[in-house]
Amino acid sequence: MKKGLYIVATPIGNLNDVSARAIEILSNAEVIACEDTRVTKKLFSLLGISLKKNFIALHNFNEEEQAPKIVEEVMSGKSVALVSDAGSPLISDPGYKLIKKCKEAGIYICTIPGCCALVCALQLSGLPTNRFMFAGFIPNKEKARKDFFEPLKKLDATLIFYETAPRILKSLQAAKDVFGNREMSVAREITKLYEECLTADVDELILHFSEKEAKGEMVFMVAPFDGDVNEDIDLEKLLLQKLAEKSLKDAVKEIVETYKFNKNEVYELALKIKNDK
Ligand code: SAM
Fold it and tell me: Fewer CB within 10 Å: C terminus or N terminus of the chain?
């Protein structure tokens, strides 16, 4: 086996998704760089791969100091495999600093592709696949969540996020506030027994996950911005409803931001409704 760094994808739920090439590389590599050595050793045992190797922990909190050590291992003539706990290394997982250092050192780098949760989810969603943006994990705080979504609002691309079950309702609600009533999708437990992918209007998804407690790992997706999203909305009816709940200024602001109507048009109609009362 040629000395170098091998980026090896592992399954995201179904053990049978490991490739023959991944097994070959993991069996022959002398050093395994992995996030959690316990998780990777368990995987090796399940796959029947020998544990007589040097396992080096490489995670988000030690990558800076571990990367040069791994580079040294390769330079000394060893073959190193990089894996994450599950799926494709480097995708919302550590590794890019290591790859950068290996490239600078002129090390041979090879990828052994396989499962990647975001790609599997996009395939299952029925949302457009010609252009997409993966934005990683959604922040956990309410304001941070909306600030995170805001710059993505008018992107003509399917938006893909990693999410965890206990937070999905809050993310759906924040997504509704920022993106409006678009089609969205939640793919969970991909490649596992209870794999499912629900694609529907955001209100339907909110209802679904309010009634049924969400479980398992998830990928959350939002349909691309469509300049015509407000075509089917009855602006006068919406304004009447919002004006009954809040001030004219706040009602106009919310409708403009959420449904992308022209601000002057909304403001003038709001004034007319107020004056007619
Ligand atoms: N690098 C991995 C990949 O791209 O395949 C992802 C690692 S990231 C730390 C873990 C996140 O990926 C989970 O929180 C979830 O959002 C997503 N994920 C991983 N496995 C999944 C699965 N089987 N079904 C749905 N989402 C999954």
Answer: C
pLDDT at site 206 = 96
The predicted-structure confidence for 38-85, as pLDDT tens digits, reads as follows 999 999 999 999 999 999 999 999 999 999 999 999 999 999 999 999
Its domain, for residue 210, covers: 117-222
Which one of 10, 125, 138, 162 would you pick to mutate in the ligand 1 pocket, going by the greatest count of ligand atoms within 8 A of its CB?
A: 162
The pLDDT value recorded for residue 177 is 93
Residue 229 has pLDDT above 90, yes or no: no
Pocket of ligand 1, beta carbon within 6 A: 12-13, 84, 86-88, 91-93, 115-118, 162-164, 187-192, 217-219
**230 located within any domain:** no
Quickly list DSSP for 204-246: HHHHHHHHS---SEEEEEEPPP-TTTTTT--HHHHHHHHHTTS
Q: Do 70 and 167 belong together in one domain?
A: no
CA 164 to ligand 1 center in whole angstroms: 9
Number of domains in the chain: 3
- CA dist 207 and 245 (Å) reads 22
Q: The domain that contains 127 carries what CATH number?
A: 3.30.950.10
Q: Are residues 155 and 131 in the same domain?
A: yes
